[in-house]
Amino acid sequence: MADLKRLYHDLVRFETELWAAVDTRLRTDCDLQLTWFEIMQLLGREPGRRVQDIATEFAISVGGTSKVVDRIVVAGFSRRIPNPQDGRSALLELTEVGQQKLAEAVPVFEDELALRFRSVLGEGELERLALNLRLLRTSAFSVEDRLSA
Fold first, then answer.
1. What residue ranges carry the coiled-coil annotation (predicted)?
2. What is the 3-state secondary structure (H, E, C) of 80-101?
3. Has domain 4-118 been given CATH number 1.10.10.10?
4. Which residue has the higher pLDDT, 147 or 37?
5. How far is it, in rounded angstroms, from Cα 86 to Cα 54?
6. C-alpha to C-alpha distance for 39 and 65, rounded to whole angstroms
7. Model confidence at 4: pLDDT above 80
């Protein structure tokens, strides 16, 4: 029988170690912190997101997201544009400098992930891990629903 406490410990510690390793690599090689990179990656895929959208995507507070976005804007990597559907909010997009920084950082990010995952697990194991993590994440919503009922 699986030791769920040990599984929890290993999963949380691995996430913490993975975040630290990727963050260190991005800071060293690209002068970019992982928190910024995550948001910039989202804006690169889906420009025109609001701060609220970003907060929802990453399951973090709107206030915290707003502070990080402000710093990305001040650094010149992103800009706010008026939201034509809601004058109270702004839409975010990467600047040309932000697109260049993201293009520089993506290979570094991917290389670190390959080092941490592909050098240890085979492709079949990675596919099973990805599937199981998606299953756990999507079932978490049904667990929350059951708890609030």
1. none
2. EEECCCCCCCEEEEECHHHHHH
3. yes
4. 37
5. 17
6. 9
7. yes
101's CB contacts (< 8 A; 6+ apart) are: 30, 32, 40, 77
**To 10 degrees, what angle do helices 51-58 and 34-45 make?**
110
Residue pair 121/129 in contact by the 8 Å Cβ criterion: yes
- Amino acid 116 reads R
14-55 pLDDT, tens per residue? 999 999 999 999 999 999 999 999 999 999 999 999 999 999
**Burial annotation 108-135 (CB, 10 A radius, 16+ → b, else e):** bbeebeeebeeeeeeeeeeeeeeeeeee
Length of the chain as a residue count:
149
Q: How far apart are CA 56 and CA 33, in angstroms?
A: 20
Burial classification of residue 95, based on how many CB atoms lie within 10 Å of its CB (0-12 exposed, 13-18 middle, 19 or more buried): middle
Q: CA neighbours within 13 Å on the CB side: how many for 146?
A: 5
Q: Angle at the Cα of 144 (from 139 to 145), degrees rounded to 5?
A: 95
| Segment 91-113, tens digit of pLDDT | 999 999 999 999 999 999 999 99
